[in-house]
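To the wet lab folks,

You asked to see what we're planning to order before we commit. Fair enough. Below is the target structure as tokens, and below that is the sequence we designed to fit it. If anything looks off to you, flag it before the synthesis order goes out.
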């Protein structure tokens, strides 16, 4: 089938921020492909609830750290929707383990769920995004992605998120002639962050919300952001200004 409405793919959308972004995109009129790696139940629930509210949604599973899986997912998306206008690379596994405790599996989980998944998903989506009138890629980063300094916990994740920023700028430069913009939104501590017990004081006086992130994503998808490319919007309530 081919859908008349614009289509978005949100990775890691079975819960948390990804779920919130998928729902908001659906409310905005997009057909939404709800990606999952392991959380099939959550993704199917999100897609079913979007459809129950009158939207179009499909849950799609893939390990995006594998190029063949990313290509397969995009093939399934194309067969369903016939188009892709927006890619939101949200997937990322944060495991708060120290340098001594971090296993080989944990290292690759942090790195592959961020940088590798963003790279392969974006590259697989490029033909469809180029065919769109104005394709948009929004990568979800981390408020410290532009501050490559020492990390005590989840170092694979942090290395991966810094890599996502490099990928954001690299794809932005490559794809600008095709009318595609590639930008990054980098949250600080969110209301569901894994290590809130260790969060420092936030200058704004509160943790970030999913809505805070959505407002930034929504701006980047609009025509007023059409000349903004390769940017990194840090949404942290001033945390990163310490």
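Sequence we intend to order:
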């Amino acid at each position: 089938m081919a859908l008349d409405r614009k289509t978005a793919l949100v990775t890691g959308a079975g819960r948390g921020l990804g779920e919130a972004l998928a729902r908001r995109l659906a409310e905005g009129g997009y057909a939404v492909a709800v990606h999952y790696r392991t959380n099939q139940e959550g993704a199917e629930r999100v897609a079913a609830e979007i459809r129950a509210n009158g939207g179009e949604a499909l849950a799609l599973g893939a390990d995006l750290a594998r190029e063949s899986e990313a290509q397969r997912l995009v093939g399934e998306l194309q067969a369903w929707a016939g188009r892709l206008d927006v890619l939101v690379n949200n997937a990322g596994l944060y495991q708060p383990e120290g340098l001594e405790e971090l296993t080989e599996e944990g290292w690759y989980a942090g790195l592959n769920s961020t940088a590798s998944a963003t790279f392969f998903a974006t590259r697989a989506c490029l033909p469809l995004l180029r065919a769109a009138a104005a394709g948009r890629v929004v990568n979800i980063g981390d408020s410290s992605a532009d501050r490559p300094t020492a990390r005590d916990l989840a170092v694979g994740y942090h290395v991966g998120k810094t890599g996502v920023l490099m990928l954001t700028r690299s794809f932005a430069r490559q794809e600008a002639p095709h009318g595609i913009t590639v930008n990054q939104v980098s949250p600080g501590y969110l209301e569901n962050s894994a290590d809130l017990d260790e969060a420092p004081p936030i200058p704004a006086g509160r943790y970030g919300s999913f809505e805070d992130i959505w407002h930034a994503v929504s701006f980047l998808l609009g025509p007023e952001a059409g000349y903004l490319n390769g940017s990194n919007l840090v949404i942290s309530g001033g945390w990163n200004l310490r």
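Structural context that might help your review: The radius of gyration is 17 Å. Strands lie at 7-10, 31-36, 57-61, 86-89, 136-140, 181-187, 232-235.

Thanks,
Computational group
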